Amino acid sequence: QVQLVESGGGLVQAGGSLRLSCAASGLLFSTYAMGWFRQAPGKEREFVARTNWRGESTYYADSVKGRFTISRDNVKKTVYLEMNSLKPEDTAVYYCAAEVAGSYKYWGQGTQVTVSS
Questions:
Q1: CB 97 within 8 A of CB 106
Q2: Which end of the chain is more exposed for a tag (fewer CB within 10 A), N or C?
């Protein structure tokens, strides 16, 4: 079955950096667009970033543009989210997801990111 496993979350001070990873199995990873989402306590889940299947086209939420970078390694079947200049408002559970026919069908279990002020 399809599995997406996130890692790399943790506690970091404002202004710091983290790199999240999402390892995929059970799907032909190189054919899927991948996305990162996040959900803060008491808030709706929100889109963060997306990369197409080759990693050549990326798209970001305005709130993270210029600070976060999404990338992928199709050999390792892994998608990454490099997060710099972190702010307390970036605190959330971060999820990766695989896109199927325009909607995100497969989701990971999430990894907690906490940014202290």
A1: yes
A2: N
